[in-house]
Amino acid sequence: MPSLAEQILTYAQHKHLSAQTLARWQGWTAEDQAELLTLAEELQLSENHLRDFVDWLEEIVLRDGGTLGGVLSRPEVHRSLNTKLSRNDKLKAVKDALRRLRYPQLSQLEDDLRAAIKALDLGGRVRVSFPPAFEGDEVTVAITAHNVKELDDSVTRLRLRLADGTLQRMFDLLDQG
To answer: 20 to 30 A Cα–Cα from 121, which one of 25, 103, 166, 170?
Structure first.
């Protein structure tokens, strides 16, 4: 059986990892290196994904303390790893779990905005979207309609939400973020 260092080097060569990414990985404790190797092999992480994971893991540990293995064994990450999903869907789920751990305030804002939009009950024809990472202060409201009646119904719902103040909640949340 190859040593941990040999297994990591083999993975790095197979995935054409940069010397910088490999050096960061090798700078961790043996336990953390092994945890990342298990994750990398299971998800077949490319250089870019691996670098994102390394960045986020290091930032979470720096902020919260603990170990990288401890972060990877948190319930939200563990659940994502143990689901019956395709490799790509599992990668997306794990990446989202780590992103939520890394950016808890942004994640809370996303959750709050989703709840606020749902509470507006604008119907399926009205879509509300925000700039990436909520940078900027603009909200996009798009209406899809097949006829004038559908358009009128959607505009009427929007007007009601403007008039009763419930639409303001969304903007208040953005101002807080």
So the answer is: 103
